[in-house]
Amino acid sequence: MLTEDAFLALDAAAQVEVDAAVAFAEAAPWEPEADLLKDVHGPAAVAHGGRR
User: Within 13 Å of residue 30, how many CA atoms lie on the same side as its CB?
Assistant: First the structure.
């Protein structure tokens, strides 16, 4: 059975991991605009904002 203390420890550890991931993502540079559609798979018209 999961005790309250064990739950709080797991919750705190998860929050530390999430905070580290957010900090990493916020510190990363933005993708160049030319790369925004790179490796996007689907009909070309849809990928470029057109209708199917």
Answer: 4
